[in-house]
């Protein structure tokens, strides 16, 4: 009896945290699997904690359904372990640039614009890229991203303006790739821009993105023929960090299953 009480409290607390996390971010129009799934899981855990005895009694007296119920929990815990491993990888995968060897180019991948300004995640990427670009003044800096829904300027334009105004990076160093709408296109559309500068994708290149995105972006870059690149990951804002990581988990798995890299 005591154990079941603690289980109910545990699921109620976890459920409430997950539900509020998803609900608040969805209310802020951040709607994706990384916010919807916590909302649904939180709702399930809350209901489970409230109707714990009724649910367990129901499955106890329905043997076949009880087996499916237990198997479902087993799958959930296996998934949770794999998610924990993925999160552990991301938490320990922030690259520190110590090698000052010259690079030919720096590519910053887009991550959304809000009201004409870089999103919090995109600003972190630009803040991470700026000191690298300042230390490599001869390297071309490609900012990559098209026009977001509801915006009038491309991500590339907004990124370029942010870097010039905040870090005084010269406009002559920056190249705008303003047509892409995905990571795959970020890297693909950057290739002709590099070629126009007599830079081959086999030359040393730094790719800057968020910590959660480095694994998938690297896989896509390799498939496209980038062979001498270094991934540099910026930290994700705490308010959306684990939701972004959760979304990326499914994006990486689906990309792997669909043989996208």
Automatic annotation (TrEMBL):
InterPro entries (alphabetical): Cell_Envelope_Assoc, DUF218, Rossmann-like_a/b/a_fold
Pfam families: DUF218
Domain DUF218: from-to ranges: 105-250
TM region positions: 6-28, 35-55, 67-87
Domain of life, per lineage: Bacteria
Keyword Membrane in annotation: yes
GO CC entries: plasma membrane
Biological process, per Gene Ontology: Gram-negative-bacterium-type cell wall biogenesis; peptidoglycan metabolic process
Coiled coil: none
Record keywords: Membrane, Transmembrane, Transmembrane helix
Protein name: YdcF family protein
Organism (species): Acinetobacter halotolerans
Organism placement in taxonomy: Bacteria, Pseudomonadati, Pseudomonadota, Gammaproteobacteria, Moraxellales
